[in-house]
Design brief:
By secondary structure, the protein is an alpha/beta fold. The protein is 42% helix and 14% strand. The protein is built from 8 helices and 6 strands. The chain has a 6-stranded parallel β-sheet, with helices on both faces. Helix 4 links the parallel strand 3 and strand 4. The protein is globular, with a radius of gyration of 20 Å. It starts with 7 loop residues before the first strand and ends in an 11-residue tail after the last helix. The protein binds 3-methylbut-3-enyl trihydrogen diphosphate (2 copies) and magnesium ion. The site of one 3-methylbut-3-enyl trihydrogen diphosphate (IPE) has 11 residues, from helix 1.
Amino acid sequence: MSTSLPRHVGIIMDGNGRWAQVRGQPRIEGHRVGAESVRDITRASRQLGLEALTLYAFSSQNWSRPADEVKALMQLLRDYLLDERAEIMDNQIRLHAIGDIERLPAFVKEPLDALCRDSAHHTGMTLTLALSYGGRESLARAARVLAARVAAGELAPDAIDVDVLGQALPTGVLPPLDLLIRTSGEQRISNFLLWESAYAELVFVDVLWPDFRRNELYRCLESYAARERRFGLTSAQLANPDSDVEPTSG
Ligand code: IPE
Ligand code: IPE
Ligand code: MG
């Protein structure tokens, strides 16, 4: 499987609330057990040798949830960062965050910044947490940065191409997104990596996030490995990249 292992996997970790609801428990209990899935999937991804794992943990739109749920999620996030610090440091994982991090409360932002800084030199897998993240917001921010460079005379408008825009995104430092997984049965992107998913393979699984553990991940990777990624080309071109078929003359 290793030859067709994705370099970069993104996951929309959805279904925590429903997981708790079917058990007659408060939604936050689903988030708590969901954090266990984060640990297992991160560990398994590191062991498999993925270069990058990006987890959608909290969207720009999730701020509009009931205040109690937002508060509990922030508390869980802080607990996660403190509890996982040793594991991240010991396993050469580089922690990276994307999103409007300034909006996070200080009790989350501080341990997050510290762990990103302290793990910045690590050469193992890059674990990116998408926090207060929106794909549209991220594109708008990149547009603002590029516009400012144009206004300052540092960048010509004509120089803005796919590479320049891609590099202006917070994911510009990561390998291209190969596989995008969403749990919980919903089949939508919900403002995750909009630009980056242009040629990602999409896998939607019916399992709720708290039940998504490494065996589920392996199944997604098998599905990925069985696909043909054509990037706009034909199957024949992919099979034989050197031979451009001559048009048949009449
Ligand atoms: C995903 O689970 C976690 C976050 C969005 C923070 P949900 O909380 O969306 O769970 P469901 O979709 O309501 O079941
Ligand atoms: C997407 O899930 C956000 C995260 C998993 C963090 P949501 O539950 O917020 O998405 P919708 O509302 O179902 O589209
Ligand atoms: Mg949801």
